[in-house]
Prior knowledge:
The protein is mainly alpha-helical and 243 residues long. Helices cover 66% and strands 4% of the residues. It folds into two domains: 1-92, Winged helix-like DNA-binding domain superfamily/Winged helix DNA-binding domain (Arc Repressor Mutant, subunit A, Orthogonal Bundle); 95-240, Up-down Bundle (Four Helix Bundle (Hemerythrin (Met), subunit A)). It has helices at residues 28-42, 53-60, 64-76, 95-119, 122-139, 148-163, 167-190, 197-211, 214-240; strands spanning 50-51, 80-83, 87-90. Strands 1-3-2 form a three-stranded antiparallel beta sheet, with helices on one face. Helix 6 runs antiparallel to helix 7.
Amino acid sequence: MTDSPSGSASSSGSAAKSQFVELPQSNLSEQVKDRLLAAIASGELAPGERVVEADLARRMGISRGPVREAARLLQQWGILSSQARRGFFVRELSLEEIDHLADYRICLESYAAKKAAARASRSDINRLRELYREILEAEKKWGTEPLAAFEATIQFHRFIFALSGNPRLAEAFDGLLVQIRQIATLVNIADEASESFFGKHLLRIVEAFESGDPARVETCVVKYLAFSRDATKKFYMDYFRKD
Length: 243
């Protein structure tokens, strides 16, 4: 189905259910867009991999038009790139782009977390602790489900954004998720040493919420996201960019 010049973990989604199955014949371009995003986020389509319009259209039981329309939209979003006479490719992120994404997320989430801490009730903090325990349980599945813990952390972070009381902040975070998942999919599948990373570092955020100090929460979130950014960049350089 694909060309994969990047040499990265393009086979990571092969054991999972494919996103490209037959679609209901309504709102096709929107459905294709969602399937492409899901495939990129899960690793079924890897960075640098070609989006073969004819093959995907055949597998989904549709014409090539909706696939091309969806691909053009994702190109506008910066998720896909195009090459003359070759079509669309999943865009590869540079270290600079990882930095920019992380800086934006740090600003966004540290502010949301500070507001959330100021509003959090005892039941909210108990729920945050429950979500943290779910992350610990998911980390036990690392050998067979390397993305389970990451997906559990998404619920943890989403809860913090929701608790901020500002739906615009939550929408902004959701807008980052495709790129966040794209990076995390590659790293978590390839890095066998990542087990317990989330549980160990997110505990400090939970404890900061329990302290009732919004400034401490903000500091812990900044430190966690900065550490995660630096670890991701190091792994990206050591593993994905090596010859």
